Amino acid sequence: MKPSIIRDIKKSESGHRKIEWVKGYMPVLSAIEQEFLSEKPFLNKRIVMSIHLEAKTAYLAKVLKSGGAEVSITGSNPLSTQDDVAAALVEDGLNVYSWYNSTDEEYNEHLNAALDINPHIVIDDGGDLVHLLHSTRKDLIKDVIGGCEETTTGVLRLRSREREGLLSFPMISVNDAFCKYLFDNRYGTGQSVWDGIMRTTNLIVAGKNVVVLGYGWCGKGVAMKAKGLGANVIVCEVDPIKAIEAYMDGFRVMPSIEAAKIGDMFVTVTGCSKVLTEEHYAVMKNGAVMANAGHFDVEVWKPDLEAAATEKKVMRNNIMGYVMGDGRILNLLAEGRLVNLAAGDGHPAEIMDMSFALQALCAKHINEKSAALRNKVYNVPDEIDKKVAYMKLKAMNIGIDSLTKEQEEYLKGWGE
């Protein structure tokens, strides 16, 4: 392994404090850590991770290390790495390759350096590690037994590979687990997106026309939180079923070109590219604010924005103003990258407690069952999903009912 690549080891003290803070609000992952310390399920295994490198991810990496693994970690977005957290992980004995505001070249260098661990298990967020393993780092595939994917965009890429018969090892879609998308995608994205937007702009949301482009689980959360903040919410969709759902949830629904004329704030959350383009920029209001909550910085299409602008100027930290030919200024947050991480701290700790508990247990499942798994994308086993849910309820001191044997038989039968 190469030596760790980080900005400054002297920043570690605040990183340790951040990790300890979130650990106090992640009881499920803490319980799994105790299991791993006792069982050592990853003894003699090497795990590579590419997830937004902040405190909650750092704690997941430490939990995997507590299970006996050698862990190599890098970020999954050039603007989401927190340098003090990276430094703290190096002091804790992990291999770390990431720093904030990396160039494209540095970002790829960090991914490749992390892969130099020659991994057995891959934990990915967006699919960059899997892509490299199937392209320029094919030499490492022979030792990979499988992995887990965290987010919608990465799962889409995996399923595309699977359809074409090009997936070389089994992957578990953590993103599609109930304990992930119902909470992380909806409540986590909903809150953290508005945390990022509000702390960056210092503007009020109440009374504004907020346009949410995409009404999947993440879009639902963004729209719900905007409504709670007093915004007039408009939803734009390409799926007719989701459009009806948005309408029945109380939101206005219209084509994006119509919404562009009246929107004050725009949040793209589709997982697709070129969601806001030249035609939208031509009709937007002066002072419009655009933010992206999809994994890649391709939803607010920057080449069109650059081409339309006669001038660019920094308005505030993490806000670039694009001056149009008629004098209007369109504001883009965090370079069009994930606003909740590039301009904030990401999802709340209590939410990531469940998502990262799933990651830890699914990595263990891959390690134990890899010989029986084919090169395809698997859903999270139901028993793991429910285990995390029960552990979370216990941590919150919430009890629920259970079916009697008679009720179980009634639900199984058809005669009564």
Structure in words:
The chain has 17 helices and 15 strands. It is α/β, with parallel strands linked by helices and 416 residues long. It folds into two domains: 222 residues, 3-Layer(aba) Sandwich (Rossmann fold); 156 residues, NAD(P)-binding Rossmann-like Domain (Rossmann fold), CATH 3.40.50. An eight-stranded mixed sheet has the order 9-8-7-10-11-14-13-12, sandwiched between helices. Keywords: Hydrolase, NAD, One-carbon metabolism.
Cα separation of the termini: 64 Å
Low-confidence stretches: none
Structural class: alpha/beta
Give the count of structural domains.
2
Assembly type of the chains comes to single chain
Radius of gyration: 22 Å
CATH superfamily of the largest domain: Adenosylhomocysteinase-like
User: How many helical elements?
Assistant: 17
At the first level of CATH, the class of the largest domain is: Alpha Beta
